[in-house]
Structure formats: structure tokens, C-alpha cells
Amino acid sequence: MIVQGYAQTIRWAKGEDLNFLDGEKTLKILICYDSMTFDNGKSEMAYQEEVAKAYDAEVPGKGQKYLERWKLSKEKVFTDYFMKDFPKAMGKFKMKAGPDVKGNRYLMKIYPLTVTTGAATMPFQRGAPAYTDFRISFVEEADPKNEVGSVFIYQVMGTPVGYDMDQSFIGRFKNCFWFGGMALGRDMVRIKKAKK
């Protein structure tokens, strides 16, 4: 089924009934970056090197600071933003979800896919909104090859919100995770209500 809203299209490829979550109390969340490509198919390494070089041309040493911020964002910030609203939806399932929950049967793996940075100019301050596509894979933690659910979220838009004036690519990209988590959570609640 395809559901449109919140500037995204959500398409379930497998496990749309969410029956695999029946009776579960926890869901571990992991973001996987190995399938991510940037504008026109650039690899993460090629894109980040290009950005760092542009920053260094602007201010020597600024590129290294950017790369350190990117690393920290991948380790923590993007997960935190995905978790801004997603746990509220999981509360409807009487489940706890997050990167550190224990005793899980299932693992939810989040794959950012094609990323459009919205870069107006390098080093892309004040560019257009960033966009990304996500694939979400639900697998057994004990047997990750056993995928029980799969959903795609297309064209999730990231732009600074409210008092967040961070216009950099990272500032916009982190909100792709926020809005992606919000959209997925709301769609899962929609499915749960439809089953009653």
C-alpha cells in the first residue's frame, strides 16, 4: 500500500500488517549508512571530501571541523532526531524503542539511500531543503537475514525548523531523520488502528 503525506510517500514492501510486533515489548533501532549516496550518485567519502575541501578553501582547518561534526552526527545526532517523535508512536503499541533497549526479538534497521543535499553553492550554506529516501528493514536480531518487514519512505524533506537556524547541510539533513521517524510512526499507528 502507498500512503502519501507529510511531503513523503510511504510504501510497504513486506509485513505491512505489523503482525510480527504483536506481543513485543521492545524494538531496537540502528541506522546503517552503507547504502547512502549523495547528489548524482557520489559516495559518502567522495562527497564529504569535496565538502571539507570547500570549507578549507574558505577557512583553513574548517574542513576538519566539519568532518568531525559529520562523524558525531552519524554516531548520535541523526539517531536522536529520528527518536524525537517515533517513541510516541511506539507508545501506542505499548513498546519501547531506541538504540539502547534490551531484550529485543526484532531490530529496525534504517538505511538512508539517495540524498539530495539542496546545495545552492559550495560549501552550501543557506541552500534549498535537503531530501532523502529511506528503507526501513525489520529483522530478527538473532538472525538478521530473516527480514519480517520492509518499508520505503521517499523524498523526506529536511529544512531548519522553528528556532533552529542551522542552515548547513547537516542542519537540514538531521531533520530528514526527524520527519522520517514522525512519518513512519504515524503510519504504523494508522495500520494498528485499522486492524481493530
Task: Note down, in words, how this protein is organized.
By secondary structure, the chain is α+β, with helices and mostly antiparallel strands. Helices cover 36% and strands 30% of the residues. It has one domain (2-195). A hairpin with a 3-residue loop joins strand 4 and strand 5. Residues 1-7 have low confidence and may be disordered.
What's the SSE blueprint?
Blueprint: E1 2-5, E2 8-14, E3 26-31, E4 37-38, E5 42-43, H1 44-58, H2 62-82, H3 86-92, E6 96-98, E7 106-116, E8 130-140, E9 147-158, H4 169-195
Parallel strand pairs: 3-6, 3-7
Antiparallel strand pairs: 1-2, 2-9, 4-5, 7-8, 8-9
| Poorly predicted runs of 5 or more residues | 1-7
Radius of gyration: 17 Å
Number of strands: 9
Distance between the termini: 18 Å
Largest sheet: 7 strands, mixed
Instruction: Provide the number of structural domains.
Output: 1
How do the SSEs run, as a string of H and E? EEEEEHHHEEEEH
Oligomer: single chain
Structural class of the secondary structure composition?
A: alpha+beta
Overall geometry: elongated
Overall pLDDT level: 86
Q: Give the proportion of residues in helices.
A: 25-40%
List keywords for this structure.
disordered N terminus; two-stranded antiparallel sheet; 196 residues; seven-stranded mixed β-sheet
Task: Quickly describe the structure.
This protein is an alpha+beta fold and 196 residues long. It has helices at residues 44-58, 62-82, 86-92, 169-195; strands at residues 2-5, 8-14, 26-31, 37-38, 42-43, 96-98, 106-116, 130-140, 147-158.
